[in-house]
Amino acid sequence: MFDSLKERLESIFSGLRGRGKLTEEDVQQALREIRRALLEADVNYKVVKDLVEKIRVRAVGADVLESIMPARQVSAVVYEEIARIMGEGSRGIDISPQPPTLVMMVGLQGGGKTTSSAKLAKKLSKSHKPMLVACDLRRPAAVDQLRVLAGQAGVAFFGPEASETDVVALSQRALAYAASHLIDVLVFDTAGRLAVDEEMMAELDRMKAALDPHEILLVVDAMSGQEALNVAEAFNNRLGVTGVVLSKLDGDARGGAALAVLAATGVPVKFAGVGEGLDAIEQFDPRRMAERIMGMGDMAGLVEKIKETATETDIRQMAQSFKKQRFTMDDLLAQFAQVEKMGPLDKVMEMLPGAVASKMKDLPPEALDDKRLLRMKAIIQSMTKAERRDPAIIKGSRRRRIAEGSGTTVQMVNQLLKQFEQMSELWKRFGKMGKKRSLLGGLG
Ligand code: GDP
Question: What DSSP letter does each residue of 82-110 carry, written as one string?
């Protein structure tokens, strides 16, 4: 799912990263490409317009363009807005504090309503005692299908009698049965039609009035694209839907519906069907979905980390030190402090985009060991000011003194000095690159 949108966005952002420092025109150009990619993923036109505008307002601001990592900042803004447009947080079924919880499943025939009802009942059966109620009195095949699925899911089933014609009476009988069998959630698989029609809506309306359900979940087929939004609008206007189940998101869907349902109808997507099997249902999580769309690692985690730790000033200072001719032990100490602030090194590494992480992989593995970091800090802290400025003066007796002062060994001090030399070499090279273009901007 979202494969082509993901690919498009990845190529847009890698183009931005390649540019280092960004101008407003660079961002405008990227926004035009993002707009086109969203439209091609079948996201509703109005929704795209709105979304791109929100991104524009945040992304062309001076604080983004002049930041050290502009491309990363722009992709973080796009990620956040895509997540926001799909809703805040993920919500499952609203379980009533006073059982039974009543869930009405509605939708067009073929949309995946019966399958989704069984999937949900199976999911609920882990912590509840649900029952599936077959309410399509016109299509005996639909009743049989639900009975079979209930058997496969291992949950209770309630169906109409042969001559039953009134869906409200059937629902009442189901409620009475539930009360005497300790059933605490009822999932009503209502009748669907091939298209939205008055007779179906009137029947659903009567059921709603009789049951006063806690949830009315509309099942729409993600593969139906824009049509899914029209269907959602029609059902919501008439019935007041509490959530959408987006079925067949595993299929060939371009995924546009997932992005647009909430914005276009005001109804949140609560679940996504991702296959034919009864376990193939996921609680819909806007942030995780946005991560998938952006093809990122743990983007949410990284955005939080950047906000929490490195302030803009920190990063600026770090970039400044790259440009200095001479690298001192104090610079190394400052680097260690920065790295420590970000948390365990291997965790930070996991969150970095591929390009940066692969550069870091060239470092020896022990460079990423947190305990080693502490020891190295202690060693530097045992040096005098003069020694920190000019480590070349640290010879035999000074090495012994520093080792004692830091509770380490001469061998470790030697190691640090060697590493310092390697680092200052690297620094010199980075400094030269930095003159051509902003180094960290290039990494962003
Ligand atoms: P209903 O008429 O709305 O009750 O639709 P059904 O539940 O009978 O589903 C119609 C078809 O879609 C069936 O073949 C299902 O197996 C299939 N289907 C339903 N949900 C999904 C899904 O999430 N992924 C896939 N791949 N197929 C699904």
Answer: HHHHT-SS-------SSSPEEEEEE--TT
Top CATH class of 101-284 equals: alpha beta
Which residues, in sequence order, are bridge partners of residue 244?
Answer: 218, 269
pLDDT score recorded for residue 355: 40
Is the CB of 250 inside a 6 Å radius of any atom of ligand 1? yes
3-89: CATH topology: Four Helix Bundle (Hemerythrin (Met), subunit A) (1.20.120)
* Short-list 54, 72, 87, 22, CA closest to 307: 72
List where CATH 3.40.50.300 sits in the chain. 101-284
Ligand 1, from 115, 119, 249: best to mutate by most atoms within 8 Å of Cβ? 115
Element (H, E) at 429: helix 410-436
- What is the reported pTM? 0.69
- Location of each CATH 1.10.260.30 domain in the chain: 309-443
Tallying the residues shown for the chain, one arrives at 444
Q: Which of the residues in the chain have pLDDT under 50?
A: 298, 350, 352-359, 361, 433-444
Mutation test of ligand 1: which of 120, 247, 252, 284 has the most ligand atoms closer than 8 Å to its C-beta? 247
Rg (CA), the chain: 30
Asked whether residue 191 is marked as a ligand-binding residue, the answer is yes
- The angle subtended at Cα 338 by Cα 337 and Cα 339, nearest 5°, is 90
